[in-house]
Amino acid sequence: MIENLDFDVLSFRDQQVNDYVQKSSAQFDFSNVSGLFNAGLNPTDKTWPDKGSISYKVLSKEMLLQKGYLPGPLQQMQFSLQLPSPGRIEVYLDTTAETDFPLALIRRSWTFVGYLEMNGPEGIATLSFLKPYYWSGTKDLIARIYFQNATGNDFAIGTESTFATNQDFSMMDGHVLQTANNCSVRVPKVAFESIDQEISIGFWAFGADTSANVHTYFANGADASGSRNINIHLPWENNEIYWDCGGSNGSFDRINVTAQPADCYGRWNYWMFTKDASKGIMEIFLNGNKVQSGTGKTQPIHLESLQFLSAPESATGWFGMVDEITIWSKRLTEAQVDSAMLYSPLEQSALDESLEAYYDMNTPSAVEIKDLSPKLNHAKLSGIAQYLSHQKAGAAYSYNSENMAISMSPVIFDADRTEISRTDIFDTFPQAAALLKEYEKLDASTISLKSQVPVFLPAYSTTKTANGEILSKIWQASTDTIHNSIINYLRTSPSKFQLLSFVTPYGNGLNLGAQGRTWYFDMTEYAPVLRGNKFLSMEDGGQNQEEMDLTFYYIKGRPARKVLDITNVYRPGRGYIQDIIIEKVFPVKSVQLPQADQYVLRAEITGHGQDGEFIPRMHQISLNGGTKLENFEVWKACGAIPVYPQGGTWIFDRAGWCPGDPSDVHHFDITQQVSQME
After folding, report:
1. How far is CA 236 from CA 213, 318, 382, in A?
2. Residues contacting 6, CB < 8 A, separation 6+
3. What is the pTM of this model?
4. Rounded to whole angstroms, how far apart are CA atoms 334 and 332?
């Protein structure tokens, strides 16, 4: 099987499918030149180096206008370069009216204008743009310059001053982690065992724009009993970002904020989630800005487990790219959140003691993610994931010094252009593999995972320009097939009878009074199973809400009828409507009945979820494939129930149930139908 993929015959490939980004460099012959202006080298008035080998040059509109530039088409850029070695520089441009640098460099829509091959580590060169880039004269001009040496490695930390001393430099390729649904980063307990009142969790995220990325779990943690203590939905299916933190017995503190698509998908964003239970404060930050906060959030934090990118049980994890995950044992201030976004946490000495883990993804491993904090709380990596370089991932953050010295000057003029030559290079992006799991039957009631291997699915191989224009889409067909088969086995479980379906009321604004509310139910039908030692449970969440007092009264007397036996046609459980229709769940069932004078069928059906809770449906039960009982509608009016007022949507009618009221029970006397059968 493959998670989230049903198949009878799986077509797959023996080789991975790659996508490509084409980057071009061209030479042009310019004629009919007019309005030529070049102020000479080095008009740059601001520089921000980035992690690895990326540098940002900001040319303010005031500086350009002062030097005599007029609005017009930028055709070329002249460079004076000092680089660590021969290699290639790529140039991207954008304009901005923002003044808060270096924050203004984040989340830019960069336009690739060309690249230069440098045969030596320094020199003067002119880059002719693939297309003219128009400068309006009303905004600052920003250049993003990326360097890669001849062997394909990025260069890391250094400074222009240390470069001048011919110091040796270590090479490092910065990475991000690209995840699939079954990817999990499990944090060791020692990283959070001291966390009780305060916590901050920060990270860079680039969500995949996919239909599966709609009700996601980015982070989740639980206490020793399994109760939620950390949860980040990024987002949930209603486009809300949820931050749950601290709690017990199923109750937890929560704040949430509505997200725009660009906050979750298709670009890099920096998130920080904080809490201080001693002050009752919870906050959500997006790209350094506080977007939500809440007070009165005083439940302490009790963590027994913490994981990122995967979900509890069978829920959906998170798809996309992630980097720079940090965990702090204190609530960061707004200024500290800005610093955590812009700088390496290792440079913030004031926060050293509270930094519990720092996962920068720069030590690729299939099983472990290194913690760069002094505490060395390395995380376990499982499932399928791949590492991409910062450049391939489009990342632009963590402003550190680097070992390039670059001066530049734009050249503006109008002209006719004739292309003389062009050179293309391609960056390769492997598509993620799927995880194929094979199961085997050990005995009549036991199946076991036999193996799991990555497989490559057929897909389109897409080639785009560096600016996102699609050049080609070529289908990469399958080379082999795998046939899926059904394993028939007995699913065993202890005998279980549902005595009552009762959904607890919605708590916001709820007042049950000092004595609470009491309901009485006749349980005589269940007499055969209410004898002897039995295990009694409350399940599905209600046991974690209001306090419940359950009492059984055994009343001496003669019942209206003697119940001989109770048989489950279907064990209490759930199933999606599509699975019910195809009999994947609640299939045709054979039941052996004892000799009796009367037979009654009891049905208690409720609908839940997006395709069930607020949709009335007609149900019908048939016996032996022929005799059909009367149709009945699973629908319940909720506006007049005794428990009111409640919070939220309690007043809306629902499929067979209401908050604060017992679910509907349907009884069918099938004595006549059974008497006609063997």
Report:
1. 9, 11, 23
2. none
3. 0.54
4. 7
